[in-house]
Amino acid sequence: MKTLQLHSFHQSKGAKFATFAGWAMPISYGSSIDEHLLTREKATFFDVSHMGEIEVKGKEATDFLSFVLTQNIKKFSVGKGIYSPLCNHLGGTIDDLICYKINEENYFLCVNASNTEKDYQHLLEISNNFECQVVNVSDKFGQLAVQGPRSQEILGAVLGDKISLLQKMDFGSFTFNSTEVIVARTGYTGEDGYELYCEQNTLLPVAEALDNLCFATGASWAGLAARDSLRLEAGFPLYGHELSEEISPLQAGLKWSVDLSKKDFVGKEALIEQFHDATKPLVKYFRVKGRRIPRAGSIISDSHTQVGKTLSGGYSPCAGQPIGSALINAKIGAKQGDTYFADVRGSEVEISTCAPILRELQKK
Prior knowledge:
This protein is α+β, with helices and mostly antiparallel strands. It has helices at residues 7-12, 32-41, 61-68, 116-127, 151-159, 200-211, 214-217, 224-234, 268-275, 357-363, and strands spanning 2-3, 16-20, 23-28, 44-47, 52-57, 81-87, 93-103, 106-111, 133-136, 141-147, 171-176, 179-184, 193-199, 220-221, 282-288, 299-301, 306-316, 321-328, 339-344, 347-354. The protein is 24% helix and 34% strand. The radius of gyration is 21 Å and the shape is globular.
């Protein structure tokens, strides 16, 4: 099992660990519900150094990435990041990632920890047809995330006031103790926030600088349990759950991230076919009546037959009730507010489809 560069640091903060994607990761430092709510109300810090990083450089780097990603890389500008699925020829999702454009011949990809090697080999194979180089630089970088309404204030105290110039999905280079830190205004919580890509020897000083602001700002460290409940509230997919090689971006409700007008890209033909196919099951979010939580794999039925299965399930601290996501048979035409039943250890639990909970709460 791999351990984070800051494993001992997190131990000193009282972290509880569990295995995730082959890594010993901090799950919480106390109450994961408190960490969740603190992210929504103030700010929290996450060590997500298990994530993978891949560089793509060369004369045809832009053409290459426009071919392998579903987004149109040619449309976004230098200094911007863009979220994009990475699909196979059948339209299934190999991974979802963020692509940062340093210049027309230099890109930086942040990929999921469990998929780093798979992504790298996939990209490497296709890159043979383009004049570019693909390099796995995951061992060089660690990643810390600062998330929540006070994230700009906190990070400004560490890296300077120019942090406020970054707009959503922007990234830039900042200096900390004479060392470069790449900062992106991105995140996975549904809150404003930043993700910091640090060289391994810079991780501890940056983490300590953030930690020193906890008392003054009310911020704290948070683990993967809060990160998961935060992303589920926000309706963000987790690879292996709402996205997989069996679940395409179109099925996951991510049509906005698939540019079918591009001349060509991996999986285009299959995704066009899916776009016109009304029979493919679709990802839907739901809230639960009662306190029992349907977990991944739980069967979902209407009053007569099975109509789908649960993809993710958990407790929403902001809504005060269990929530989840499911893959539902498109033929039944599930609409928001429709009622179904999830099997939880042999008992039927009533659920109703809805928009992601955070979106609903923000409307109130």
